[in-house]
């Protein structure tokens, strides 16, 4: 199988930040799956400088760019592979069916470990190699004139420096694994942010933040206690508004002489939405506290098993 | 070693590795990979390989001490993939990691041992792939010799060269020395370094040769005193080795028989000096006697060179009555005495008698010296 090489790997600033935050906030080592897509881009070779464009067209006819849009992290390492680095396919498929949204495909994985060298370890090499040679997990290259299958061969490595005194607190490197040569190719990681400097990316980068899939009904999301300070009457009104749906035609009323009547109505809608969000935030806070409590409890149990006490 | 701060399960495995390994593996450093520095869960092992050390980082996870460790190899060995996973449905051979059992303290040792063997095969393969006619010839001719380790060194700022570590002599040195307390198998190796050459000059230059022994062997035999036979032009290792081994073998036999010569000398010393306070019973390189001249009592330390009796023993006198002032408080010692009358042709009784006579005079000088030191200290 011929490997297709990506020119670079793109990641949005927020995704990278949240990945780094995930690694640096974890107690020990973590790893997880990377999702995204691979896009075929026909480079713009139009240039005023004729000599430069001539060389560019011959060398860079087509360009593949891998875009990391999201990741899924585990609370421990070694969840979807064995100690010797073989894939645990049933677990992996199970994870994929629950954690990935429809558009994004698995394109690789990451490993975060503190105070280690910034090069793939024995197990990481095995896992990456197994993922890269797994044809079932391949995704199609988008926008491509030909049909290309792209295996999940992207690997991110995140570490921290050995000395604590250094100015920088973390290090990372992105690789593409080439199955044909059995080697890691370091790739430039292109951080895409919003702003004038990145205007050129707008066409090929679609930022999005999928709301986590909550497979079961969240208790209390609609109950009274959550929105304590919201009067019953207002709540009903809010529900009514929501039920009706704020038709786009109604927005037309905001123009012209009648506008003042409707602004009040809208303000009320926003107000109640804010209150509902507030309640939701409180609920999240409470449940995070309980998750933390449970995690600490689990850690104690693990330590007990490992013979610390 | 900080035992307290290492998870007990991991410590048991590391400890077993260090005490039971046939190679003398060392721990270079240990550190913690947790967010809040706590348990030590990673360490660097220096593993002897091809007369050098390879350094591997063993990465455990203190949060999950039951999980198998991971290993980061050296920067030059990125293409070393010991447990290649391969595609799905491939045969998955059993290895030390696949049946990891955290409760079994022998597991880390068997993992490192297995990996070292795989690394040896990997280096052998790399050396085999080097495009150099002479190397190919050498490898083919010495292949039958057992235990040869080879290493291909390459890097940005290093010249490409191939190192061989050829174990010499089939005899078991540990068994040949009666009562030896060596824990590791003593061995002598010939290190042969070939520069990876351009083809046209390949046959001309001799490889760099060096004799290397396990460090503890030096109390029996010093490889620094051994002169390597010359490497003739157009020679290959298969031609060079038998001659070298023959010379070495006879010298080792001499070294072992010289233990007995030294033992006889120490026994003979007991006649004028009385029984030794302390003596090295295995290699007979050291003995200490108590002597006196009038009321002045002192110790005589003998250290016997490997070239004994061609080279005379070195003596050091140590007073039992004069001490340096605090905080040292050490007993006053003489300089090393090596210029006394000596002839290797004397028989043992004469040697000891002459030394005794010499010391009866020399001890007066030493006594004077001790008193002077004491005076200066006041």
TrEMBL record, chain A:
Pfam families tied to this protein:
MPN_2A_DUB_like
| A Gene Ontology cellular-component term | nucleus
Which GO MF terms are attached to this record? Answer: polyubiquitin modification-dependent protein binding
Q: Which InterPro entries match?
A: FAM175, FAM175_plant
Question: Which sequence ranges are marked TM in the entry?
Answer: none
Domain of life according to the entry: Eukaryota
Organism name:
Lactuca sativa (Garden lettuce)
> Source taxonomy lineage?
Eukaryota, Viridiplantae, Streptophyta, Embryophyta, Tracheophyta
Q: What is this protein called?
A: Uncharacterized protein
UniProtKB/TrEMBL annotation, chain B:
InterPro entries assigned:
BRE (IPR010358)
Q: State the compartments where it is located.
A: Cytoplasm; Nucleus
Q: What's the superkingdom here? A: Eukaryota
Keywords (alphabetical) are: Apoptosis, Cell cycle, Cell division, Chromatin regulator, Cytoplasm, DNA damage, DNA repair, Mitosis, Nucleus, Repeat, Ubl conjugation pathway
Give the protein name, as stated in the record: BRISC and BRCA1-A complex member 2
Q: Say if the entry is tagged with keyword Nucleus.
A: yes
Q: Which GO terms describe its cellular component?
A: BRCA1-A complex; BRISC complex; cytoplasm
A single Gene Ontology biological process assigned to it is:
cell division
By sequence similarity, the record places it as follows: Belongs to the BABAM2 family.
Pfam family name, one: BRE
**Does Heme show up as a keyword for this record?**
no
Q: Taxonomy-wise, where does this protein's organism fall, top ranks first? A: Eukaryota, Viridiplantae, Streptophyta, Embryophyta, Tracheophyta
């Amino acid at each position: 199988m011929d490997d297709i090489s990506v020119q670079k790997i793109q990641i949005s600033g927020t995704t990278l930040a949240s990945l780094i935050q995930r690694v640096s906030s974890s107690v020990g080592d973590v790893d997880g799956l990377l999702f995204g897509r691979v896009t075929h881009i026909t480079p713009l070779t139009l240039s005023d400088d004729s000599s430069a464009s001539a060389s560019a067209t011959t060398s860079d006819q087509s360009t593949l760019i891998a875009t990391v849009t999201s990741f899924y992290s585990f609370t421990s390492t070694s969840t979807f592979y064995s100690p010797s680095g073989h894939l645990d396919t049933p677990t992996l498929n199970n994870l994929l069916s629950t954690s990935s949204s429809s558009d994004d495909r698995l394109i690789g994985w990451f490993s975060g470990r503190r105070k280690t060298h910034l090069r793939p370890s024995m197990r990481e090499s095995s896992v990456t190699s197994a993922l890269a040679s797994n044809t079932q997990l391949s995704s199609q290259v988008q926008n491509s004139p030909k049909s290309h299958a792209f295996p999940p061969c992207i690997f991110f490595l995140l570490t921290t420096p050995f000395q604590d005194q250094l100015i920088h607190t973390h290090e990372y490197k992105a690789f593409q694994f080439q199955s044909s040569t059995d080697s890691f190719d370091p790739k430039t990681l292109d951080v895409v942010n919003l702003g004038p400097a990145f205007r050129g990316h707008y066409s090929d980068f679609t930022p999005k933040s999928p709301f986590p899939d909550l497979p079961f009904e969240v208790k209390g999301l609609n109950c009274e206690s959550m929105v304590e300070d919201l009067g019953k009457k207002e709540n009903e009104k809010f529900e009514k508004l929501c039920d009706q749906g704020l038709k786009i035609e109604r927005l037309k009323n905001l123009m012209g002489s009648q506008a003042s009547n409707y602004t009040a109505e809208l303000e009320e809608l926003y107000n109640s939405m804010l209150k509902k969000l507030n309640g939701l935030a409180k609920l999240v806070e409470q449940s995070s506290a309980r998750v933390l409590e449970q995690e600490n409890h689990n850690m104690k149990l693990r330590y007990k098993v490992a013979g610390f006490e | 070693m900080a035992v307290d701060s290492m998870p007990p399960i991991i410590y048991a495995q590391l400890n077993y590795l260090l005490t039971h390994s046939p190679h003398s593996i060392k721990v270079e450093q240990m550190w913690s990979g947790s967010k809040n520095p706590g348990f030590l869960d990673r360490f660097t092992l220096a593993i002897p390989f091809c007369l050098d050390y390879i350094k591997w980082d063993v990465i455990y996870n203190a949060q999950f001490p039951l999980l198998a460790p991971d290993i980061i190899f050296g920067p030059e060995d990125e293409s070393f993939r010991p447990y290649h996973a391969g595609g799905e449905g491939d045969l998955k051979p059993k290895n030390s990691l696949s049946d990891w059992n955290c409760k079994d303290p022998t597991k880390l040792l068997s993992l490192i041992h297995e990996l070292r063997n795989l690394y040896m095969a990997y280096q052998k393969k790399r050396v085999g792939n080097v495009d150099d006619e002479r190397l190919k010839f050498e490898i083919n001719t010495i292949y039958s010799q057992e235990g040869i380790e080879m290493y291909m060194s390459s890097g940005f700022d290093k010249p490409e060269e191939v190192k061989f570590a050829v174990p010499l002599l089939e005899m078991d040195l540990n068994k040949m020395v009666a009562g030896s307390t060596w824990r590791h198998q003593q061995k002598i190796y010939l290190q042969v370094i070939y520069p990876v050459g351009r083809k046209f000059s390949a046959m001309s230059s001799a490889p760099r040769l060096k004799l290397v022994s396990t460090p503890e062997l030096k109390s029996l035999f010093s490889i620094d005193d051994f002169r390597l036979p010359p490497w003739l032009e157009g020679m290959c290792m298969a031609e060079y080795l038998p001659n070298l081994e023959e010379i070495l073998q006879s010298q080792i036999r001499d070294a072992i028989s010289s233990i007995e010569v030294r033992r006889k000398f120490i026994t003979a010393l007991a006649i004028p000096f009385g029984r030794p306070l302390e003596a090295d019973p295995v290699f007979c390189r050291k003995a200490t006697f108590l002597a006196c001249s009038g009321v002045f009592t002192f110790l005589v330390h003998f250290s016997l060179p490997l070239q004994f009796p061609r080279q005379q023993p070195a003596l050091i006198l140590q007073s039992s009555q004069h001490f340096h002032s605090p905080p040292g408080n050490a007993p006053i010692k003489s300089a090393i005495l090596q210029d006394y009358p000596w002839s290797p042709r004397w028989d043992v009784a004469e040697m000891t008698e002459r030394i005794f006579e010499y010391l009866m005079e020399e001890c007066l000088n030493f006594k004077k010296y001790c008193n002077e030191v004491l005076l200066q200290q006041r």
